[in-house]
Design the sequence.
């Protein structure tokens, strides 16, 4: 678009939530979307990992926590209007992605909030893959191991520090 480089990320695994043969519609570049509203915390997901957020929201609801869910869809350009709404409404924001946590989508959200002057008074926790070698296994097994599956999202914190020194906390 507009003569500028553009990259698409194709995750492995099966599509969920829609028939991939029908129902295509153009998504305006740089726009995210509200999946569900809530009052206590906003979970901002990026990528297919967002499919776990519904399960995490249900677990949180059972514990009396009302969680909103936003699907970022794009990191660059990032949806400033959507994030303005999120940071105006919530004092707790959790980002979750199936990419590397450090320098990933969650970092882009924190950078945007800082640059926009909206980070003050907001607790942000970033969940994503640690910057270490991860063993083989099913996607669900590996997501659970590194703390980005539904249980990790519900807990809202990265797993405990591992012997190799990684597993650092959120922001």
Sequence:
């Amino acid at each position: 678009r507009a003569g500028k480089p553009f990259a698409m990320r194709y995750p492995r695994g099966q599509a969920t939530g829609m028939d991939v043969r029908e129902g295509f519609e153009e998504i305006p570049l740089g726009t995210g979307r509200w999946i569900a509203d809530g009052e206590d915390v906003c979970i901002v997901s990026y990528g297919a990992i967002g499919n776990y957020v519904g399960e995490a929201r249900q677990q949180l609801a059972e514990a009396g926590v009302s969680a909103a869910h936003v699907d970022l869809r794009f990191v660059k350009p990032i949806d400033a209007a959507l994030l303005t709404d999120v940071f105006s409404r919530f004092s707790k924001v959790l980002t979750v992605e199936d990419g590397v946590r450090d320098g990933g989508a969650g970092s882009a959200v924190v950078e945007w909030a800082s640059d926009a002057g909206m980070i003050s008074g907001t607790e942000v926790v970033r969940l994503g893959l640690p910057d270490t070698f991860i063993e083989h296994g099913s996607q669900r097994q590996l997501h659970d191991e590194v703390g980005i599956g539904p249980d990790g999202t519900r807990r809202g914190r990265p797993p405990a520090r591992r012997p190799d020194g990684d597993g650092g906390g959120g922001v």
